[in-house]
Amino acid sequence: MTTLQQVAARAGCSLATASRALSLNGSVSDGMTRRVRRAAAELGYRPAPATGKASRRPVIGVLIPSITNPVFSSSLASIENRMLVAGHGVVIAQSHYDPAREADAVQALLNDRPTGLVLTLCDPLNTMSLPSSMPPTVLLNNRPTERFPAAVTADNFKAARELTMMLIELGHRTILFVSGTFAASDRARLRHAGYRQAIEMSGLVPLEPMQIPFVGAYDQLDLSTVLSRHAPTAIIASNDLLAFGVIGALRREGLCVPCDVSVAGFDGIAIGQMIDPPLTTIEMPDASMGATAASLLLDMAENAAPPRHFDIAYFLRRGGTVRAI
Fold this sequence. Notes:
CATH topology of the domain at 156-284: Rossmann fold
Low-confidence stretches: none
Strand content: 15-25%
Strand order of the largest sheet: 2-1-3-4-5-11
Number of strands: 12
CATH architecture of the domain at 156-284: 3-Layer(aba) Sandwich
Shape: elongated
Radius of gyration: 23 Å
Number of helices: 10
Structural class: alpha/beta
């Protein structure tokens, strides 16, 4: 049976350091923690439970904006399935699309001494409020940063540009972008930037985006002012749930989708194919992204693998909510 002394010898550290690294109890550098965990994995070391106490199952922490959004639920299910195979539990926290709540949510995850973290942040470039010392971390849906170089993404900018170009090729010239607040989601910002580039490349004038809170009553969305001011022939919503709200708002104004206004969304959630007509949307690989993020985190935490960036392909799914004019 492999002993802790053998793990310490292989990692090139003291017995006390090896113990702290494996228990996540005490001050040990990230580099040394990875070395000790890799040595333990290579030697097949499993710590014995303390006398009279049950052994503690390792866990990872996952931060998502909202568990009620099917996008994040799909990713979370894949993460949990991957971790189940690896013998890890999953602890979940929500930011509710609020940057001010992220630091507290991450700290709550760290209190469970996780092997590592999978984070979907409002703004990965603004992380000063996050704890300075963190275990191996993978960003999910956020692009990699200097602090967090490990990330699993889809190209939101390119997808929005492609979706907007499709509408332009169908004859639309006045296209409105409706979104959750950009401060709460870098995905929304990237999608708007892709929309804007396509509009400008085509010699058109981009409309001022309509921003609303992500957490709110989409069924109460009021488009009357923006419709009377701009009379858009097409509307792009920054996610599918918001696209459903846009369709409802248009119908309350007595307008038909797509006869009067075309509507497109992002994410590709299943309910979008059950409405009539089916929603035109960018289908994001949420389940694949979740599984990839979990596997990458395990590789970094257990095998001291270097952080990497994986870009997973999206798919433009044409539905009945868009027409040519």
